Amino acid sequence: MSVPDAPATPLADGPAAAPPARRVLAQAAFEARMILRNGEQVLVAVVIPVLALVGLVQTSFVALDTDGMSRVDFLTPGVLALAVMTASFTSQAIATAFDRRNGVLRLMATTPLGRGGLLAGKVLGVLAVEAVQVVLIGAAALVLGWRPDPAGVLLALVGVVLGTAAFTALALLVAGTLRAEAVLALANLLLLVLALGGGVIVPADRLPGPLATLAAWLPSGALGDVLRGALVDGALPLVPVLVLAGWTAVLGTLAARLFRWH
Amino acid sequence: MPRSPAVEVHGLVKRYDGRTVVDGLDLTADAGRVTAVLGPNGAGKTTTVECCEGLRSPDAGTVRVLGLDPVADAAALRPAVGVMLQDGGLPTGVRAQEMLEHVARMYARPLDTGELAERLGLGAFARTTVRRLSGGQRQRLALALAVVGRPRAVFLDEPSAGMDPQSRLAVWELVRELRDGGAAVILTTHLMEEAEDVADQVAVVDHGTVIARGTVPQLLAAGVDRDGTATLVVDTASDVDPTGLAARLGGRFTVERRSGTSLAVSGPVAPGTVAATTGWLAEQDVLVTRLDLGRRTLEDVFLDLTGRSLR
Q1: Do A99 and B5 touch (CB under 8 A)?
Q2: What is the mean pLDDT of chain B?
Q3: Looking at domain B5-214, does it have CATH number 3.40.50.300?
Q4: Fewer beta carbons within 10 angstroms: which end of chain B, N or C?
């Protein structure tokens, strides 16, 4: 006959979890390593933004009204915004969708990391990748003569975090509701559409017709405007900050409700 | 040694889109025992263990693992539970050893990853990415991840799928070691040989409920006791007339010719039956080439219970 002889605290003496911070940091390092090891991801996250920056600054095939600024001062904030979108949206959506399909999310959720730790690890992993992006793109821009407003650099980091929150929420929403192949297609397509017409590199108010109004209310346009505000004027523009916060709230709520682990 | 139930499932119900997959299932698994959940594909085995792992919430019924609720007490339970998913759960771009070390970091006192890798033969592909591993190699890695945290309850969903025989031996050896160390091991399988090989307890699942449970010998005996008959198959070197043997054995037995030189004796087979059969054949000067006492398998038990084949 079975006798319940287990001690009152059955887990006290036996298996134990690593401290929460160590688990989340381990997951963040793991996520960042996986992204930076993947050639396609590095291409999209670092090589393309740097090439776009160099190409647009060094040539004048694309006519730009820079408000009297140098081309590099005008373009660098937008290229940084684009880089944030590749890391926090495109690459995160694709990675999470395939991890979900392969059962990785469920397996890690059964370890002491848990679902919350996995999510935190993913967000920190994205921020780590963005740190690499900012350093490399910033270095390229400085070489090209970029002179950002020193007071705006810290504010720009706030903008990066706000944009990361909105776009990570979008990434998790699509990754947690659609098939992996569909996410792969959608995440790349959306990045391209937003990069060209979403007010990222070319500010929303320079876009033609109704796009000018629309793009300002998109998270892409708002992120571009926040980074330009910080790095060019040394101040965070209120409306785009609120737009980003609003998108984060809406997309985050939807992702929390609709995300399917299976 | 007293045993405490490490896993207790009572009246578990789980529906997907109105379709009932698990339907009032009861399951108990003891610490220090290997419990096999045996059943055909779609019987509800995976859903049941996923409810135990906290990956799904039951629609009705209770699930307790090490005395805790897998959903409500997830944070307390996770360090003590090891999981091997049916679809692996391995990221494709990671190297085998790297993944093992990563999961080990989630625990305060993990097993030595080098030693564990050696035990399961992971060394040969330690630096290979998951996408290049064979099915058996992935399964061994997934098992290593399930046990690296020294779990007290281990859930293995179809652990031997895609494994070569050597891998399977290594895996069963590790499973027995975990059991002897006091862990409760719960594995699902649709292969009866697997349950016969490794399980101390078997729960046969079909259509979302347990239709039979017990040790392998108990299950095998239960089917025989129900109708009390068994079949003795005798192959002979030359042709014999079944009616002569039937007359010798008496009315409680039927003797049928299966093929030219093979006879099937059905009835309450006892030691005397075997002696009488071979004795009669000796009188006829007929050599016996094979004698099969019709040892039942879990497959037969399952067939008896459901009328269907297991695979």
Answers
A1: no
A2: 88
A3: yes
A4: N
